[in-house]
Design brief:
This protein has 2 helices and 4 strands. By secondary structure, it is an alpha+beta fold. It has one domain.
């Protein structure tokens, strides 16, 4: 139950596929940037691209 609330809080997607030991998980591919205080700063989508992702990271780090 706790995992569901965390997934919802970060708008993460997950779904179990199959049963037994051979199951897999579909899931979102988002990187979450957290500040030194442990609080959420921003998210980086998997398809953003390396140059743009680097810009987002640098800008977020500059803000603290």
């Amino acid at each position: 139950v706790h995992r569901v609330s965390l997934a919802d809080a970060y708008r993460a997607y997950y779904q179990k596929v199959g049963d037994g030991e051979g199951y897999t998980m579909n899931h979102s591919l988002t990187v979450y940037l957290m500040g030194p205080d442990g609080k959420f700063r921003t998210a980086i989508a998997h398809d953003l691209g390396p140059e743009r992702a680097a810009q987002v990271i640098e800008r977020t780090m500059a803000r603290g």
